Structure formats: C-alpha cells, structure tokens
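New to this. Look over this protein:
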Amino acid sequence: MSTGNSAGGGDIFQIDLAPGTVDRRFDFPDSGFMPLRVSADKSHIAFVIVGRSPGTVYVTQGLSSPFTKATFNEGPFQLDLAIDGTGSNILVNGCLYDASLAPRQPCTPSLGARSAALNRAGTVEYNAFDGGVGVINLMNDQESGVINLPEGMGGLQGSRVGPPALTPNGDLLGVLTVSGIAIVESRLSRPQRPFTNWTHPAGVPLDGIGGWIATGNDPYPEPGQLVPTYLYGRTFGFAGNPSAQGLVALVKQMNSKYAVFTVSQPSGTVGTAIVPFNWQAGRFYFALVYQLGPGQWGAWVYDNTAAAWVGIGVINTPTAWGELSPATSTTAQWYGRYGGPCSVYPRADVYFFPTYGYQGTDATLSTQSSTGTVPGECPAENGVAEGIWAHYRLGGDIL
C-alpha cells in the first residue's frame, strides 16, 4: 500500500451533499468501480477508484480539503470500504485506518471485497454475505455473531449481496439482496444465563461432588434459528485456591453431544477432558467429580436408563489446592456465537437436582443458597420443579 495527497478537478465524478446541488466535482481518468461512503455527520467522504492499476482509496474532509490517497495492491474490482459516523475510522477490506489512511493496527487486507459497514464508533464491522451479516469486533478481530436475513431474502448461492447500510442511529441494518432489501436489527442479542448456588451443610472441604441432570428436550433449530450450542453444567471450586474453578457438564454443539470435565484458573486452563456422550431428551444423568489421590481428580457420568457409567477423564491439580469447596453452582448456558433477535435461539429445557457433597463415601445433599440470571437481552426462566429441582428454560419461545 502507498499513500499520498491528491486534488481532483473536471466533470466526470460529482458528490452531492445537499439535495439539488453539486458541491464538488472530480475527474478520475481511466477509472472503474467507485463505491462511495459519507460519514453520518457529513464531515468526511471516502471512495474507491479501481481501474487497470491497483485500487486507490481517497478520503477528504470538508469540501475544499485535498484528498488523502492510499493505493492497495489488491487488483481491479477487489476493494470495498466503510466509514464510521465521524470519519475517524475507514475500513478497507477488513483492515481499519484513520482518516489519514494510516493503519490503526497491523493488518493484511483480505482478498476480495467484504460488503461491509461500520458502526458509528468504528468498533464493529457488519460484513454481509449470502443469507446473513457477520458482526465482527474490530478491537480483537473476533466474530461476535451472525444476524440472519429474513427467510427468502438471501442472495443466490455463491452470489454477492450488496454492502449493508446502517440507519443514522445505528439500530437498523439494510442489506441489498437479489430478492430485495432486507431490514434487520443491527444489535446482537445475548440469552440470559440462569444459575443456582448450592451450599453443603457441613461447610467443610469435600472429596467429591455430584448431581442429577434431567434433560427436558434435545435442542434443535427450527427454520431461521442458529445451530444449538448449549452447556448444562455444575461448577465447583477448590478449598486451597478460591480463584480456580472446575466444571462437569453435558454439551450439545451443532449435531454432536459430549460430556465435559475442565479445571481452570485466571492464568489459564489447567486441564480439559471431553468424550462423546449421546445424551437424550427425557432421561436422567448423574455427573460426578471425585478425588483419586492428592491433586488428582476423576470425572464420570452415569446414564440412568442404560444403567452404565462413562468415564470422562482425569485432571491433575497442584496438591496445595486441597479438596473441593463446599459451594457449587448449576447453570444452563448458550456458549456459541450470538445472533440477531431472540427468536434465533433454539429452545433448551433442563433440570438440576441439588449437589451431593462427598466426605469419603458419605454423600450429603446441599441446600440452595441463592439463584438468579446473568443479564442478557433474551429472557430465560429460572424456576423450581417438584419443590427441589432447579428448572431452566432458554430459547426464542421464552418471551
């Protein structure tokens, strides 16, 4: 990429900033495709000129200022750009630049145009594709989720939809497709996460913990919904390291199901064990974590219908962490990428029995100490069944 300044003149290209008026005209000979973007406050103009040479991006502030110019070695008809609300950030094929076209951070532009828009702050990219819009956090270059277009509004397979456009307040997103203009909400919606905290009555370190999980349904996507990524888990701590946490859980990810055992601390994951486990709706499962020796922990899951135990794995922890804390929690959580309206999340229905705490081979039932939900835009239900089971429901039908 090369940069420089350029001033234009002539009568081939024009920019209208007020109805019925031509505020400035520019002549760019031997030019081709010219996507143009104007910041929401009309302070900055950005556009691409692509001809026989590599594509060039031009940015100007005001009507009399010279252009800042940058040339990208992408080849003809391969550049796309977006501009934020104040002209402070310019997005070129997935890379962020300031108004002088200096890179915000090291980045290699992606091959091919991305049909993108920027939010007003220049922190989120909306990347349109056939059937949806990817939402990318530009602060960490991670995809946060996908906003599905209404059914029947996707492009032809393999076709490119037009670049998305945000309303001035940023609440709505318009995408031009071969079927018409799709209007969707621009924000991603996060499901709430219900949880219940349990406390062992003895209040002393434990040799193990376990508890029943009853699966009310098998999450399955209806048309227009996201692929299920749900976790039904019981968390626990360590008496000698309050910042460490363990988890034993049943998981559904896409069309696969697993039993998971993991231990982590703020500095990273200590260990993880995962085994395929085809849990079914309407069954009872008992997940158990127990100390095999100092600093050595095993995990299993019992299928009540099959009357069989399945080993998940063994994780070693520092012996100084000691035994398990008497406090545990249960939760149901969506852990996949987020979507648009709450209706895109498949329904999930699960029950948790209070935690059993083990001292040697003696098991004592914990009591509920508190319950609640982690905030999110999509409501979840946190109730009680049969007077003792924690009952969680999540998904698009919880409205």
